[in-house]
C-alpha cells in the first residue's frame, strides 16, 4: 500500500522542480520612484557600508509575476507566445482604464529582503492581471512551479545577493537603517508593460534584464509588442 501511495505522489509532482531561469515582470521606470529608492539605498549605505553588495541596482526594478523554468528554445518560444496571448486577457481586465501602481512605505521578508510596498487597493487589480498571465503559461504547459503567490513588492535590497555578508555575521537587516523612509510615499507608476526576462543572460546596456519579449498594455498599447 505504501509503495502505491508513493507512486501516486510521484506522478502528481509531474516533473522534478528545476531552478527557474526566467521570470515575467512588470518593469518599474518612474523616475520619482527610482530616485526615492536610491535615496533609501544611500541612507542605508552611509549607515552600513558593508551592505553595498546587497543593494539591487535601480535599473533592474520590477514586480515579479511568475518565475519559470524554460529548458529549451522551444519552451522559450512557447513562453513568448503565452505572454503575447495574455495581452488580450490583460486588456479585458483593464477595460481601457489606466492602472496606477502606487508605492508607499517599506516592508521586509525575514529581515533579509527589503522592499517598497504597493498600496493594497492597486494590488487587487494587479493580482487579477497576474492570474491571467499565469493561466496563459499553464495552458502552454510551461513549468512555473517555482512561482510563489503573487505579492507585489519592489525589492531593493536582499542579503542573499551578497553571500559573504553572512560570514561577516549579517543575518538580518535592522529596520533602523531605513526607518526615516518606513512610511514614505515613493511615487506612482502607470502600468504599461510586461516583460519575459532571462535571469542568466547578459543584461541590457540600460542595466535591465535581457528580455525575450515585452507586451505593451493599457493606453500605450498601440505599439506592437517588442521582441529581441
Automatic annotation (TrEMBL):
GO terms for molecular function: kinase activity; protein kinase A regulatory subunit binding. Keywords: Kinase, Transferase. Signal peptide: none annotated. GO terms for cellular component: cytosol. GO terms for biological process: regulation of protein kinase A signaling. SUPFAM superfamilies: LigT-like. Residues 20-215 form the A-kinase anchor protein 7-like phosphoesterase domain. It comes from the Eukaryota. Transmembrane segments: none annotated. This is A-kinase anchor protein 7 isoform gamma.
